[in-house]
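quick one, two chains, predict together pls
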Amino acid sequence: MFSVKMSSEYCVFMYVALAVRARNYVAFNRSRFLFQINMSKESQMRAAINQKLIEMGERERLKELLRAKLIECGWRDQVKALCKEVIKEKGLENVTVEDLVAGVTPKGRALVPDSVKKELLQRIKAFLSQHST
Amino acid sequence: MKMEDMSLSGLENTKLEALAHDVYSDLVEDACLGLCFEVHRAVKQGYFFLDETDQESMKDFEIVDQPGVDIFGQVYNQWKNKECVCPNCSRSIAASRFAPHLEKCLGMGRNSSRIANRRIASSNNTSKSESDQEDNDDINDNDWSYGSEKKGELMHSNPNSPRRSKSLKHKNGELSSNVNPELYKYNYSSGISYETLGPEELRSILTTQCGVVSEHTKKMCTRSQRCPQHTDEQRRAVRVFLLGPSASALPDSDTMLENDGYDAPDGQLIMSRLQWDGSSDISPSDSASSKASTNNSESKRPKKKKKPSTLTLTTTGSGGERDKGQERERGDRDRVVSGGSGSSSSQNALALSSRKKRPKLPVPPALSIYDDLN
């Protein structure tokens, strides 16, 4: 048998490695833990605000306002023309909702005029500043 | 602390902005999705392409945006400059005036008969008034008379306009405004010339119209059988003259004439009718007194038609009141009253109002007054 004599240096080394590992583990978890706390606060706030929007009917009003403004500014006809193109592309019989959505939504988002966007954002912010805790 | 607050609020702001953005994009995406669902349903149900046709038709009906043309591409006053040739008189008339011209030209419109009658009546009227002055066609006096005619024409240029009838209606209170203006306002030279008409036409005209031949223009009066300008005697004379002695079928005055034993000669009856025949011609001064009597006479009047009586304008206002039986007596009285003016009235004997009396329509005094002025 080898001599069971262990050098003290080795022992020290082992001990240090363990310690470091333990510390790292703890530190990492702590940061993750902290991050989760922050995120959940924000998401909580978000959830709360969304709930408020719906409950107070503000969301519906905003939706209607947006619809009216989009029709007025001609956005609806533009997007309809886009849809027509997608249909002609894919064929009249085989068009699915997903095709349309995928083909149209990104361009549609970009086509919203700035004035409409600004006005809507203004209203939302006003609501938020009024009702955020 | 403040800095921290500000940074904190800055954070808040950015968070708020981010939040607002998120809400906004959610809303936009909802809108897009809604539209996609609508389109998809329209496609599957088959009504998505309903408002379109093929390319050619789309081009045909495109909105036109040129000056001088409406959105359909039609010109507004396209027919303004076009001219049509009238098939009747072979004149070229502007398109917008074509229909009214045709009405007058063919004599078939609503107004044409009215105008024609009025013209004839007024030309007879003026001619009669001239012949009152001198009994014959005197060329020397034509200037004077024509001058008045011209003046009359100038002054009243639009006989058919409504304003004319309105202003006159209330003046005289007569039912038909046609009569009044014709008497003293309008001078036209058209009329019916009996020489050109065949016997059948003559007969038809004479049964419906007055038909008395004006001395001045040699034309027949186209007014009704009861026109106040001519007496029944005149009418009968004309009929005898035109149709033969036994053919006169004047509905009104024949029997009356027989009753009176009056023999109307051909030609100018009026000259011989200067004497009163017992017609009650009420002078304006007598109107009040004799009204009652005439009213009585009206009620007692026989059913037969009235014998016309010549009137002297100066004396008689109301034409209508004549009754055979009683008029004689009254006529004598009236004659006495009007004796002084008899001489002057003789000149006017030919003129206008001898009124044919119908039980219900007394001609108002105003007529004869105006005649007198002529």
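The mean pLDDT of chain B is 65.
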